[in-house]
Amino acid sequence: MTERQTSSVKPSGPTGRSTRTPAGRSTRTSAGKSAAKSAGGPAGAPADRPLRADARRNRRRVLDAARDVFLEHGTEAQMEDIARRAGVGVGTIYRHFPTKQALVNELTEQWMAEGAVNAADALALPDAWEALTVFVRQSTEIMVRDRGLREVYGDIGKLLDNGAGTEHQQLRANVTKLLDRAHEAGVLRADVGYPQFQALMCGLAMATTRAAPGEHHVYADVVLNGLKT
Amino acid sequence: MTERQTSSVKPSGPTGRSTRTPAGRSTRTSAGKSAAKSAGGPAGAPADRPLRADARRNRRRVLDAARDVFLEHGTEAQMEDIARRAGVGVGTIYRHFPTKQALVNELTEQWMAEGAVNAADALALPDAWEALTVFVRQSTEIMVRDRGLREVYGDIGKLLDNGAGTEHQQLRANVTKLLDRAHEAGVLRADVGYPQFQALMCGLAMATTRAAPGEHHVYADVVLNGLKT
DNA sequence: TCCTAACTGGAAGTCGAATTCCGGTTCCGG
DNA sequence: CCGGAACCGGAATTCGACTTCCAGTTAGGA
């Protein structure tokens, strides 16, 4: 007992059990994104370190493998599958991420960041409605081919809504701007704010889950159409 | 080894594992709904029997408890919780339903049947668009307060789409008629058939999951609006 | 009322998947 | 080129469900 995890994962779940939360002792990594919010280690911890070359390489491999596996099988894919895909042992995954949930969170932030960029790109368009349309269509495209993303999107409410990651803050800010512009132009239903929009995107993700290839635009169109005043 | 289960549950899942499928030896019950599709027991089975009074009572208790628990916690609720709620032991649940999945399936059929009735009611309305509107709104209302239903609805594709229960056949028939009438009246997008509509309802279920109370009508409105030609 | 097949509850058994542990291997400063 | 701190891999452990088992209880016909 030398260090203490500050982030960890909230159990949530129905009766209180279900998803485990096993304390997951830190392995002093996480040097990647998300600036160290160190709570000041009482026992003079060596703070953050550079991370050896091979370790950094493996960390990336794990992240990439996890993205691929989750993309195809969703977050219920197993750690062993990820490890195999990454060409490492499960132990290596755990050296970099204290729990499976931590791994999922890392990827979630990555997804959020990409979404924020897409929203920013859309904001560059002059027409407010076209911007929204482009963003929705693009997001749909992405979700159609990423099962992991769809799942995570369905849980955003529980995991990140209460202002967790910086990436999400950015995404929210950009999308809100997108919506505000559309409101000002008078082309978007007044009763649809960010929360409602997010929920609808969730729904879109769900709907597209079973869409035949090349058919998902129907769902995006229905939602877009329904959003118009 | 005297009897053999015919229904059972397909594993599905990502890598092939996940939801178990442990053979679940039959306990010769299932006297309830769904006419016995007996495959003709090779060893002269006693066929269906009346089911003792207390057994019938407990079966109903279990079903009711399961509905309540799933409604609140979703299908990830535990068998023990259901048993406690029903005031019986888990063994009793298993005498009536070979697996948890079988219990879920039974409730699913129940839900389907209710949905079919609602669709039939809507069909009684003279105006095609109004009928569709009423059905969508009503379905939304129901899903808002039943987490289990939402989850099951999201899995219909895997579990029942390929024509499983009679209840679903009925639901599908009624809804199809609802859609056809709307098409004929020229008020419904031509590219939305039963599969698309079902997917959209799924999405609606997802969206409403996080709706603030009394706000879910927004989502239903958006979808309905989007469905119009 | 009595007998026995059915039914009941819940402790014990299984099982899949996450997480931990540790002997062997690999970077990298001196 | 060497030594040892870091890092690896994957077998072993842990954990939380679901499912099975069986000694005891009960419904309901003779």
Tell me how many strands of chain A there are: 0
Average pLDDT number of chain A: 79
Shape of chain A: elongated
Please state the structural category of chain A. mainly alpha
Biased composition (Polar residues) (chains A, B): 1-21
InterPro entries (chains A, B): Homeodomain-like_sf, HTH-type_TetR-like_transc_reg, HTH_TetR, Tet_transcr_reg_TetR-rel_C_sf, TetR_SbtR-like_C
DNA-binding region (chains A, B): 78-97
Keywords (chains A, B): DNA-binding, Transcription, Transcription regulation
Protein architecture, described:
The structure is a homodimer of 229-residue chains. The first copy, chain A, has 229 residues and is an all-alpha fold. Chain A is built from 9 helices and no strands. The relative contact order of chain A is 0.10. At the A-B interface, α8 and α9 of A face α8 and α9 of B. The structure holds a DNA duplex (30 and 30 nucleotides).
Distinctive features:
homodimer, DNA-binding, 59% helix, mainly alpha, HTH tetR-type domain-containing protein (chains A, B), 229 residues, DNA-binding (chains A, B), disordered N terminus, transcription (chains A, B)
Outline of the structure:
The structure is a homodimer of 229-residue chains. The first copy, chain A, is mostly helical and 229 residues long.
Q: How would the blueprint of this fold be written?
A:
The structure is a homodimer.
Chain A (H helix, E strand, L loop, with lengths): L52 H21 L5 H8 L3 H7 L3 H24 L4 H17 L2 H13 L6 H19 L9 H15 L8 H11 L2
Helix pairs in contact in A: 1-2, 4-5, 4-7, 5-7, 5-8, 5-9, 6-8
The structure holds a DNA duplex (30 and 30 nucleotides).
